[in-house]
Amino acid sequence: MSSITSYTSNLGAVTGITFDNLNNMYTVASDNNKICKIDSEGVQTYLTLYDDRNIQNNQNITYCKNDNCLYVMTNAMYFDKFDLQSNETIRVASNENNSNQYGFCLDESQNFYFSGNNPHNIFKIDTSNVNMSNNITTFIDSESELTDSNPFGISFDKFSNFYICNYNSNSYIVQYNSSGKLLNPSFITYSDGYIFTNLVFDKDNNCYVSCINNETSNSKVIQYDENGKFVSVIYSVDNTGLFGLSFDNFGNLYIANQVTHDVMKCVFNTTTEDSTTTTQPEDTTTTTQPEDSTTTTEDSTTTTQPEDSTTTTQPDDTTTTTEDSTTTTQPEDSTTTTQPEDTTTTTEDTTTNTEDISSKKQTTKTTVSTTTTPNTTTKTTTTKTSKMTKTSKATTTTTITKTVTTKTTYNE
What we know:
By secondary structure, the chain is mostly beta strands. 4% of the residues lie in helices and 49% in strands.
């Protein structure tokens, strides 16, 4: 599936599109002598190709990453380089024996290839020589190899195979290898009066072809798979202006229309297994409590007598003192009963996790200890409550120690 939106307009009769390493778009049009730069924000800036040459029939443009320059092919047999650093235009080659050029592309070594109609062959420009005009050679003699040959749009796929759109009523696309050997004279064919104008390949080697129908005044962009099998029509418009095609650095396809003077953007919506299947994280299906949250040490269950429960007994007729309180024993023949001392010590150690608690486990342990000494009975009750949560990995432990000391003095 794909979505088509208008990307930019007012470009003139735009016929060529290319992108630099920063994903800036550059276009040329057959009715002016300028390069239009469109940055990632959609802002247009015009770069003048020529100051003293009245040449307006620009046909195609491509970006060369080796020297960070733009190369423009005109319909007047010229090839010009625009330096993006100095904004200077340099004529690098001319092909005086050929006119009506359109197809223009680069190989992996950044050598140029273009299609011509006099003769109807494919030519190569070796960019290793500064004087490129001396390095123009015939790459494919399609005029002698193909029937009704009229090469137009050209492109390489990701395997360096070379393709030609044959621009006539008997439209077809031819496949060659990287050395120019014919592999398939009818890699893609199409009837119904449509003529192939240009083609590009995506990273998966799918082929996208623009075509026009002069009888019905309609243009289409059609997707084919890597074997040349029809997939779908991704764009259709009621005019005959679709020529320029190019992918940006993010895999979006751009379609130039020289009739409406605009460029359309095609975004492909790919759905992968990860986007349709939701896998729950491990923590939601298997919960492993950390060691600290499931192990209770002896120290948390050991009860020691608080200092307040310690009683010191003085000899008869003396004063008996306990910490924080004073009790005076009356002389003989009197009976004093000391009320039980009730001391409660509560220790609470709580660890709280801010995560939601989806399940809880609570255990309670109560220990009763009684200690008897002369005249004194001490009863100690220890209650320990542990709360364990599975998903939040938090344990709350509360230990309550209650010590009751009873002292009884008998009258002799």
